[in-house]
Specification:
CATH topology: Rossmann fold
Order of helices and strands: EHHEHEHEHEHEHH
Helix content: 40-55%
Radius of gyration: 16 Å
Strand content: 15-25%
Largest sheet: 6 strands, parallel
Number of strands: 6
Oligomer: single chain
């Protein structure tokens, strides 16, 4: 499967490890092997790629880089053949509701790592894949994104999703006072 346009998002968080992994030699080579021509990076509070890194990637691999901190991302999601992102609920819902192929990268530096639980559940239902930062390039090389099941946006599905996220938030809360994330 060709991944002509890949959109990487960290949301509002700081996830330098994801930006570093996707822009590493191994990450860029994996994208090039999957026929990527454009890489759009929403870096949030992480450091953007330097102009020198952008030029090097474009010159050496022929991949056009576009990056930004924050902006409305509907158009970026629409253009993408693959969305790579942190396992925030918003990113997961963007992937599902837009019927995009998704690879969620777990930020294992987070406390209580609720992201892993959410990503694992969505992967068990074959809606997306998940990986650790250290395995990103390997997963990009080997995963069959066409094998994923399209998400059917139905009221019962969103109700299940909200309930599952709320349950994770209650479990993750150190004082267990907060009942709802949504």
């Amino acid at each position: 499967m060709s991944l002509k346009t890949v959109y990487v998002t960290v949301g509002t968080t700081k996830f330098d490890a994801l930006i570093a992994a996707i822009s590493s030699e191994a990450g860029i080579r994996a994208l090039k092997d999957r026929k990527c021509k454009k890489l759009i990076i929403q870096h949030g509070n992480s450091l953007p790629l330097t102009p020198e890194a952008v030029q090097r990637i474009t010159r050496r691999y022929g991949i056009q880089i576009e990056q930004y901190k924050f902006r409305p991302n509907k158009e970026d999601i629409r253009k993408a053949n693959l969305i790579i992102g942190h396992a925030g609920a918003g990113t997961c819902m963007d992937i599902l509701n837009n019927n995009k192929h998704g690879l969620i990268v777990i930020n294992d530096q987070l406390m209580d790592n609720h992201q892993w639980e959410l990503a694992r559940q969505l992967a068990s239902e074959n809606y997306l894949y998940y990986t650790k930062v250290t395995d990103l390039d390997e997963q990009l090389t080997s995963l069959d994104f066409s094998a994923l099941t399209p998400y059917e946006a139905q009221a019962t599905n969103i109700d299940w999703f909200v309930a599952a996220v709320n349950e994770l938030c209650v479990e993750a809360s150190p004082i267990r006072k907060f009942r709802y994330c949504f």
